[in-house]
Design a protein that fits this description.
Elements: E1 3-7, H1 11-20, E2 25-30, H2 33-42, E3 46-49, H3 55-62, E4 67-70, H4 74-86, E5 91-93, H5 105-111, E6 114-116, H6 125-136, E7 138-150, H7 165-171, E8 176-180, E9 183-187, E10 194-198, E11 202-208, H8 215-218, E12 223-230, H9 234-243, E13 252-254, E14 257-259, H10 261-273, E15 281-293, E16 296-307, H11 315-333, E17 340-342, H12 344-349, H13 353-363, E18 368-374
Parallel strand pairs: 1-2, 1-4, 2-3, 4-5, 5-6, 6-17, 7-12
Antiparallel strand pairs: 7-15, 8-9, 10-11, 11-12, 13-14, 15-16, 16-18
Helix pairs in contact: 1-11, 3-4, 7-10, 11-13
Length: 378
């Protein structure tokens, strides 16, 4: 039986371990004994306590594995993946670290390691779709609308964070990179707000965020954008926080203490943004690809709507985690093999891979619907 090591036993890391332990010998590694104990009590998963901030601990955990999955916080992700590559083990990563993953490409190629990054829902599934469509048609434009939201709208935020509030807040301050007319354009986060209709939710608010990532380098598509979805009104509250300086990253002296405003904001917001036990939430995504197929205009739209399941596994854990486990199975089976750093669009372009991933998701109740329109692209 092949051995898989999952680094990180948080919400998504636990869902990944629980899914993979059906077929593989899975070891979950985390610094939290409590989180590991909860996971092991529910699933046949081996556990190991380790400080994953230490590259040597990461390499020790990876030793002897057939695959390592990185599910650590974003600020730890690059160094963690670097350590896994140094250990010579194939990797699939969902940490969405801010560094350029291609900085690790030469090391991965030299080690003969396949290292798939951004293997979640968006980035992740969105990249897989564009990679596939660009392999069969000339793509003129791509737009991703995506968001995870609570079913119940509570004043004032109308939002709950299925992952770390710090990571969410950083989305609200990091400039968004888009592709317009074949050139990379940088716009402020939260820019170009618009109201969109998302079935079956209704009207949501969409605004620019920096989610295209590797697509800006790997895809020759003239126009690309990613927008995050929230309930209408949320963006205005966040703008007020940002303009008042509460999302700043430079320390501010408060009496005898130096504090980063964004850390204080996260500490105050976390209790209000935390999903309560059993609280339902959903993930909505709409991907629109326009171009020419067989020299005729063609528009392809992929739609996903998923909710917390009957076992209480959150939609964000399902859509992110099961996309990751689908990709992991392709690597473990040898269906996808490409030494070096591989963003998901490389996987989507490989023959048969997207179909395998969509079938894997559907078997777990995560259904992606596809609609193709031939003719006028407008």
């Amino acid at each position: 039986m092949k051995k898989v090591v999952v680094l990180g036993a948080g919400m998504v890391g636990s869902a990944i371990a629980a899914d993979l332990c059906r077929e593989f010998a899975v070891t979950s590694v985390d610094a939290s004994e409590a989180q590991l104990a909860r996971l092991a009590a529910a699933h046949p998963v081996a556990t190991r306590v380790a400080d994953l901030r230490d590259p040597r601990a990461v390499q020790d955990a990876a030793a002897g594995a057939d695959l390592v999955i990185g599910a650590v916080p974003g600020h730890m992700g690059f160094a963690t993946l670097q350590a896994v590559i140094a250990a010579g083990v194939n990797a699939v990563d969902i940490s969405f670290f801010p560094e350029d993953p291609f900085r690790l490409d030469a090391a991965a190629q030299a080690a003969g390691v396949t290292a798939i990054t951004d293997a979640g829902v968006a980035p992740g599934l969105s990249n897989l779709v564009l990679g596939y469509e660009a392999s069969r048609m000339a793509v003129d434009s791509f737009r991703c609308l995506v968001g995870g939201l609570p079913v119940r709208r509570d004043w004032p935020w109308q939002y709950k964070a299925p992952f770390s509030p710090v990571d969410v807040l950083e989305e609200y301050v990091r400039p968004a990179r888009l592709m317009e007319g074949g050139a990379v354009v940088v716009k402020p986060a939260l820019s170009d707000p618009e109201l969109v209709e998302i079935d079956p939710v209704g009207t949501l608010e969409a605004f620019n965020t920096d989610g295209l990532r590797t697509l800006l380098r790997t895809m020759r598509v003239p126009d690309m954008a990613e927008k995050t979805l929230r309930y209408p009104g949320h963006i205005e509250y966040v703008r007020v926080l940002r303009e008042a300086g509460f999302l700043g990253s430079e320390p501010v002296q408060v009496g005898d203490v130096a504090v980063r405003p964004i850390d204080l904001a996260a500490a105050l917001l976390f209790p209000r943004w935390r999903l309560q036990e059993g609280e339902p939430e959903f993930t909505a995504m709409e991907l629109t690809v326009r171009g020419r197929l067989d020299d005729a205009p063609c528009t392809v739209v992929y739609r996903l709507f998923d909710r917390t399941d009957e076992h209480g596994v959150s939609s964000m854990a399902r859509t992110t985690g099961y996309t990751c486990t689908a990709i992991a199975r392709l690597v473990l089976s040898g269906a996808f093999r490409r030494p070096g750093v591989c963003p998901p669009e490389y996987v989507g372009a490989a023959p048969g891979c997207l179909d395998e991933i969509l079938a894997h998701l559907a078997a777990r109740g995560v259904v992606v619907r596809k609609e193709v329109t031939h003719g006028n692209n407008n």
